[in-house]
Amino acid sequence: MRKGKEVQSKLLVESFFVNTYAKDDGVEIEDLFPEELYLRAVREAYPTVTFTFTKEESQIRSITKRVEKAFNRIGAAQFEKWHPARVLSDWIQNKPELIADDTSGTFELVFKDINNSWGK
After folding, report:
1. CB 74 within 8 A of CB 51
2. Whether 67 contacts 42, CB under 8 Å
3. Is a pLDDT exceeding 70 seen at residue 11?
4. Is position 1 within any domain?
5. How far apart are CA 37 and CA 14, in angstroms?
6. Residue 69 within a domain
7. In angstroms, how far is CA 25 from the centroid of its own chain?
8. Would you state the pLDDT for residue 116?
9. Domain containing residue 70
10. Whole-angstrom Cα distance, residue 99 to residue 38?
11. Are the beta carbons of 50 and 86 closer than 8 angstroms?
12. How far is the C-alpha of 13 from the C-alpha of 89, rounded, in Å?
């Protein structure tokens, strides 16, 4: 978080960091989704890839980095974050019941904070 404050002061702009909303350092926007839902999206995006996490991989905080490490270990296709992101986007638009209320609420808060910062 200290680096974020440094960025804000140097650029003189307000910055938003995912860990503010995820309450954990070392995470990315994908970590705002429940892990089970994100992994379901990965499996839909990469239907021919079967993987489980090793004990070491399970310790990685960021789900995308964890998946990437597992893909590399098993020699699967190169993991690209946009593939499951496209699946999640489709689900948000066409199957909103898959997205839990607390997940939707977290994203609403992110966008509310961003929109409110523009009014300053």
Report:
1. yes
2. yes
3. no
4. no
5. 30
6. yes
7. 12
8. 80
9. 12-118
10. 10
11. no
12. 29
**How many C-beta atoms surround the C-beta of residue 60 within 10 A?**
16
Q: Give every CB contact of residue 1 below 8 A, 6+ residues apart in sequence.
A: 17, 19, 20, 25
Q: Name the domain count of the chain.
A: 1
Sole residue written with tokens 């839990």: 100
Which tokens hold the place of 8?
């804000």
pLDDT, tens only, 54-100: 999 999 999 999 999 999 999 998 999 999 999 999 999 999 999 99
The count of residues in the chain is 120
- Whether the CA torsion 14, 18, 21, 26 is positive or negative: it is negative
Report pTM: 0.80
> Residue written as tokens 């804000």?
8
State which amino acid sits at residue 33. F
